[in-house]
Amino acid sequence: MRASHLVPVIASFFYSYHAFAAMDLQTVSAGDTVTGQVSIGIHSISLPDGSWQVVSTTDEAVTWGATSLRSPIPARTAVLAQYDHGKIRAMLRLNAPIADLTSNRPGWRDDPCNVTALASRHLYFHDTLDGTAKSPQCLTVEPIHGFIRSNASWAKQVVKTVISSGNAVPKDLIYTRLDYYQALWYVNVALWINPDMDGSTSNRNWDVTLVQENEKPTIELAKSWGVALQKNLNNSDGGRNITLPQLPVI
Question: Which interval of the chain is the signal sequence (predicted)?
Fold first, then answer.
């Protein structure tokens, strides 16, 4: 083949590679925008449709979820937000190990999906799905009052970035979290959805024991999203390529 004929072929390959290469969340900063496919640690994750603003990225060493550790697990947390008419429509938190866990993680603790009786009073839903002791999978759905209920550094950055971007902070959010552990890796994916995106202006109470019948479909949407994600993870390429379900329509 003549050299001149190779140019468009090489150009096409170069374009295709970069068009489908996942954006590494290690290289982004708060305020950046990402779409499509991103990577965090060993995982490549296809985001739900739309543009997502990076509102927080933090690295930390964690020791939870294991029976014993020779050294803490280096992990990365990224929080992404999607807006609609000046409001948060939804937020995603992705958490995954950065390094190989082969040498420092001899086993997950017996029941990382366990919640205390006190905590369970504040949950809409909690289940271990079809996980096992060696590969636990736990889904939790709960109300979050006061936007972000955490004093962690990533949460403080979330609040700062959302407000500085000119978007309103919601009063309540519905929180869905899937913890998914496998032999040599884990991934935690959390989704916050804003129940006020339905346009309702009436006072509503999202406390577990007081939630009204007409609000329960929103909770079921959050739960269904987590169940769909768990099925996607079970069908993923060994957890390396994960597709997040599309956002529920509120």
Answer: 1-21
